[in-house]
Design goal:
The structure holds 3 protein chains of 3 kinds. Chain A has helices at residues 15-28, 75-81, 114-120, 127-139, 144-154, 163-175; strands at residues 2-10, 32-38, 47-55, 67-72, 85-94, 108-112. By secondary structure, chain A is α/β, with parallel strands linked by helices. In chain A, α3 (114-120) crosses α4 (127-139) and α4 crosses α6 (163-175). Chain B is α/β, with parallel strands linked by helices. Chain B has one domain (40-262): Rossmann fold. Helix content of chain B is 36%, strand content 17%. A 7-stranded mixed sheet of chain B has the order 2-1-3-4-8-7-9, with helices on both faces. In chain B, α8 (199-218) links the parallel β7 (188-195) and β8. In chain B, α2 (41-55) packs across α8 (199-218). The longest helix of chain B is centred in the last third of the chain and has 20 residues, at 199-218. The N and C termini of chain B lie far apart (55 Å). Chain C is built from 13 helices and 15 strands. Chain C folds into 2 domains: 3-189 and 224-237, 3-Layer(aba) Sandwich (Rossmann fold); 242-352, 3-Layer(aba) Sandwich (Rossmann fold), CATH 3.40.50.920. Chain C has a 7-stranded mixed sheet with strand order 3-2-4-5-7-6-13, with helices on both faces. Chain C has a 5-stranded mixed sheet with strand order 10-12-11-14-15, with helices on both faces. In chain C, strands 1-8 form a two-stranded antiparallel sheet. The longest helix of chain C is centred in the middle third of the chain and has 21 residues, at 217-237. By secondary structure, chain C is α/β, with parallel strands linked by helices. The chains are: A alpha/beta, B alpha/beta, C alpha/beta. Chains in contact: A-C, B-C. Chains B and C meet through β1, β2, α3 and α5 of B and α3, α5 and β9 of C.
Chain lengths: 179, 267, 356
């Protein structure tokens, strides 16, 4: 099993940490993992994306142009990465933000109203956890419980009061996927 | 000449006995002829500094840095551990040494081109960090090793091979008084300007070097001992004329004395 | 088994420095490797007493390395391309004065101020000697975060064995990416002082001095011969490389560092399509695995060398293969990273399509 994923959106949406969390979860499950950010001189506000690869075997290139799954949090990301999903692959996108959805018929497309759900949870910062929940439910790359374990390890202790809301967000995301 | 009888009838061995000893080379100087030109201040500066090191019993504690300039071969003469450094980089090299061996006594021995032109950044930043070592700065207003080009400290109007019509401050800048400049920095403990042209000044310079090492032992910070010196060969003067030039031209421009002393020394 | 962590390449390199018992780090911030100084400033001194100093420039940093290495200490610096250029003078002195130290170049796109994206344009500078005079750096090229860790330890061992500078030549992508790493246990700080180190003259002994100045040509030539003897020994005993699928290979993909990782993927895709592709990844760029290329050359139809530059290592591949096989090059420059598919496309067009 090798899963090659691109996470893409605006800087500040938590795109990079989504990919990192998944890589961390993969590591906890003893898989080979690689996380590659696309970086630029701007600190926030620009576009951001990262590639996460989870595999049972040694990972070759950290830089890839075709993906099993694209996770898109804004319109430019759908426009840019839809065509780069391998046939039979998956797109998961935030349907609250993205008004022109992907149209390919040879891939599975999940529309998750992430921003709307984040709004319902009264915390816009959990958008990435909602979408990550949807991803894990859709792709089964790692166990859901491992992601929460990863979050607990990555999050500095002073932010641990935020774990319950993130857990909730993750579950809300999962509930939107019906395989 | 050893063993050969001289006119008064005594042999070398008969004269050179402990009771007759009035002066000897300090053990911190190797038995090696200086390559410096006759009359050059480097030899005197080497000697008095090594006397200080010996008198303070620091010969096993000292590590020196000699970068590029006439004193590039200082390690041929100074009988202490030494590192030869790239041009201008002495204060960076000394920083590396002192940070590794903070209990040792570290010094640099730099000319004006090294300390005040190509190495200005390293000098100022080491001083500003308050690196606890001594920079000995030989200022003779000219590049000796490369035979007589203009230095950052060359006096206005002074003729060198690259200022053949005299240093024109309009196009070639003003002499850099780096001592005064460094004295402004909080990390700097002690800045003094001395000379080695006449015995009185030599004694004062030696005292200043000793003070600087005492301050370093106390961990007070960066010390700069500037020594206004001469360059008979490239000034195209006899040694005597060059010392006159030091007295009449250099010292009036670069006045001698302490520029900054440690807080605790102030009464 | 050591501690397993998910780490960025630059942070893993820094962690390895602390664990290797490194005595001091002197460096200056530059993208994409500023995490190194940041990580060390946060972590190192409290844990091992390691000295961390932000220098006023790369010029100062490499000379602080000179001074500290001259005291017999285990020291390291890092920078990225423009900063490494500034260190070249110091490296030449360090090589001549035979001081052990490790430095890492997190290569970015150039020339000039260039770009902060990853590139491999500094191969020639690293391998052919960027400073003046006849000297070599022993150059290690990691292709994973794990190797960023391993090569720090190896780098110190080699630097101390050969009394000279070792460079870890990596790039912005490996510096910034995160992978799973196994960390080695904390090593003690070095306590032995080599006899050549300047630590203060010992009673009854001669002074020690460190220099790169040998004014008499006869002496300078001897120093050069000594250095060349070291480089010869490195060529004989320190060559390191990785090979994949050589047994049935009709074609070889080759590259180092990040380029090699991308090649591996291109090889995988190519093998799925039925092309018998093998792979050679030099780990030491100096000493270069000359014999390996020479022995493989007559057995294969072509070698495709892939680099993130205009074709630098390929010159060494051509020299090593001595015309015994066809050598093709594919590269991207200026911070553009070639994709595995475009490498395979080039392979199919130039080598398969153009085969005689």
């Amino acid at each position: 099993m090798t899963e090659e994923i691109i996470f893409a959106g605006f800087g500040g949406q938590g795109v990079l940490s989504m990919g990192q969390m998944l890589a961390y979860a993969g590591m906890i499950e003893n898989k080979e993992v690689c996380w590659m950010p696309s970086y630029g001189p701007e600190m926030r506000g620009g576009t951001a994306n990262c590639i996460t690869i989870i595999s049972d075997k040694m990972i070759s290139s950290p830089i890839i142009s075709r993906f099993d799954t694209a996770v898109a949090l804004n319109q430019p990301s759908v426009d840019k990465f839809e065509s780069r999903v391998k046939p039979g692959g998956t797109i998961i996108y935030d349907s609250t933000n993205i008004l022109t959805p992907p149209t390919r018929t040879d891939i599975t497309i999940y529309a998750v109203p992430g921003s709307e759900e984040a709004n319902n949870l009264k915390n816009l910062k959990v958008l990435n956890m909602i979408i990550l929940g949807a991803f894990v439910q859709a792709r089964k790359t790692v166990e859901p419980a491992t992601v929460m374990k990863a979050l607990t390890s990555v999050l500095p202790e002073r932010y641990h009061h935020l774990l319950p809301i993130n857990q909730k967000a993750f579950e809300v995301g999962m509930s939107h996927i019906h395989n | 000449m050893s063993g050969a009888p001289v006119e008064h009838g005594y042999t070398h061995e008969q004269i050179c006995i402990p009771e007759n000893l009035i002066y000897q080379r300090p053990g911190t100087l190797l038995e090696q002829e200086f390559h410096y030109c006759p009359g050059c201040g480097h030899s005197t500066a080497h000697k008095i500094f090594m006397e200080v090191v010996e008198e303070m019993g620091l010969e096993g504690e000292v590590i020196g840095v000699a970068p590029v300039g006439c004193s590039v071969f200082a390690y041929h003469y100074l009988n202490v551990d030494m590192q030869q450094a790239a041009h201008g980089r002495a204060c960076a090299v000394a920083t590396g040494i002192k940070r590794m061996l903070p209990d040792k006594i570290v010094f640099t021995y730099q000319g004006d081109g090294d300390l005040a032109a190509i190495g200005t950044a390293e000098t100022i930043h080491a001083a500003n960090r308050g690196e606890n070592f001594l920079a000995i700065f030989i200022n003779n207003g000219i590049y000796g090793m490369t035979s007589g080009q203009m230095a950052p400290t060359t006096l206005p109007g002074m003729v060198t091979t690259t200022s053949p019509f005299g240093r024109d401050t309009k196009t070639q800048g003003h002499p850099l008084k780096i001592g005064e400049l460094l004295a402004l920095l909080p990390g700097v403990a002690y800045v003094t300007r001395q000379a080695v042209d006449i015995p009185k000044n030599i004694r004062k310079a030696k005292k200043a070097l000793q003070k600087a090492l005492e301050y370093q032992k106390k961990g007070l910070g960066f010390c700069l001992v500037e020594i206004v010196s001469n360059c008979p060969s490239n000034w195209k003067m006899t040694p005597l004329e060059s010392n006159k030039f030091v007295e009449e031209k250099m010292i009036p421009f670069y006045p001698l004395g302490d520029i900054k002393v440690p807080q605790e020394e102030k009464k | 088994m050591g501690e397993i962590k998910l780490m960025k390449g630059n942070e893993a390199l820094s962690e390895a420095m602390i664990r290797a018992g490194c005595d001091a780090y002197f460096g200056y911030p530059i993208t994409p490797q500023s995490e190194v100084l940041e990580y060390l400033a946060r972590e190192a001194t409290n844990r091992t007493g390691m000295v961390i100093l932000q220098a006023e420039s790369e010029v100062a940093a490499i000379n602080m390395i000179y001074g500290a290495a001259g005291c017999g200490k285990r020291v390291m610096t890092t920078s990225s391309s423009p900063g490494i250029s500034l260190m070249q003078e110091g490296l030449s002195y360090i090589a001549s004065a035979e001081l052990p130290c490790v430095l890492a170049n997190v290569n970015r796109g150039g020339p000039g101020l260039g770009t902060i994206q990853p590139a491999q344009g500094d191969y020639n500078q690293a391998v052919k000697g960027g400073g003046h005079g006849d000297y070599q750096l022993l150059v290690l090229a990691p292709c994973s975060v794990q190797e960023m860790v391993d090569f720090v330890k190896l780098g110190f061992e080699l630097a101390e064995k050969y009394r000279g500078p070792v460079m870890i030549l990596t790039d912005g992508a490996i510096g910034q990416m995160m992978e799973k790493v196994e960390l080695f246990d904390q090593m003690p700080r070095k306590t032995d002082v080599p006899d050549w180190a300047t630590t203060g003259r010992k009673k009854g002994q001669d002074r020690t001095y460190i220099t790169s100045l040998f004014i008499e040509p006869e002496v300078m030539e001897k120093v050069n011969l000594k250095l060349q003897a070291k480089y010869k020994q490195m060529r004989e005993t320190e060559v390191r490389y990785q090979t994949l699928n050589l047994d049935d290979a009709e074609y070889i993909f080759t590259g180092y560092g990040l380029g090699a990782r991308i090649c591996m993927k291109a090889m995988e895709i190519g093998r799925e399509k039925g092309y018998k592709i093998g792979m050679i990844r030099p780990i030491t760029l100096f000493p270069f695995p000359v014999d390996l290329y020479a022995s493989i050359a007559p057995k294969v139809k072509a070698i495709l060398d892939v680099e993130l530059n205009a074709g630098q290592m390929v010159q060494d591949v051509i020299l090593s293969t001595m015309g015994k096989t066809r050598v093709e090059f594919y590269g991207r420059m200026g911070g553009i990273i070639p994709e595995p598919e475009e490498i395979l496309e080039y392979f199919e067009k130039q080598i398969i399509g153009g085969a005689k």
